[in-house]
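Entry 12.
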Amino acid sequence: MMEGNSSIVTEFFLTGFPGLHPEYYSLASAVLFSVYLLILIGNATVFLLFATNRCLHKPMYYIIINLCACDILFSTTTLPKIISKYWFQSGTISFTACFVQMYFVHYLGTVNSNVLFLMAFDRYLAICHPLRYPNFLTKSNVYILSVTVWIVGMAGALMLVIRAYPLPYCASNIINHCYCDHISITLLACTDRTPYGFPAFLVAMFALLGPLAFIIFSYCSIIMAVRKIANLQGRLKSLSTCSPQLIIILLYYLPRCFVYLASNVGITFSADMRIVIIMLYSLTPPMINPLIYCLRAKDMRECLQKQFCRRTVPQKTLNK
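Predicted 3D structure (tokens):
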């Protein structure tokens, strides 16, 4: 081990879903691999549409591209290792690699939350301050906001790793999870976790609830602004521009808030159920988000239809 670290643990073992019978390992790996492929294909399709259609080069879609990049990176950080655990019975991960994974899990989670904040901010300006929207959310400002989101997320995740890495890990090396995160790792430390757990909880709450507070404020403001529109068709049009972002935000925040609230009111879950819930709310949004963009966002839906027509029309011509 590194000098200054009194751990005798040199590697960790990821249990994945603890109650899963070995006969279902191949099925679990196939499902997780399919989810990973869907995430990569769906988000790569959004990147392709954005790159090949200048009509999508708008502030809203620049923000969506950030979310796609975050979703691809998060799934690539977490899924390959747990897939190999069930596919090749390779559940071990080195001590340092586990902390690297932990860093990216929390870092990308913070980035994701901040990108959702940007999405809400985009709709807030577009509906509540439409005259200021083109002047404030220029292409250069969106670049600056996007870079800021990726930089700001580094500090909290780095703090978690710096405080957790030197702890003495001298007992169990079994992590009851599908990937390394702060709680599952520090629970294995041979010391009182409280001085490390509470600051980590505050960082998590700030990263989660800070953007959520503004998102709630922005959508309350949007609803109030929409109610002032006399024309019913105008109201529906304004709300329709918000629907993709709102669905994505709800998919991300509702399950997380449910888990936090449930734990605080005394509702407990079995280890398997807890991990299943965490995996569902971690992987379902990255898998479904591209579908929401392509079906609900008008510009992207039209670009996808054009792309599809370009491929089918030449094929029909060849057949003739």
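Annotation: The first strand starts at residue 11 and ends at 14. The beta strands are 11-14, 92-94, 174-175.
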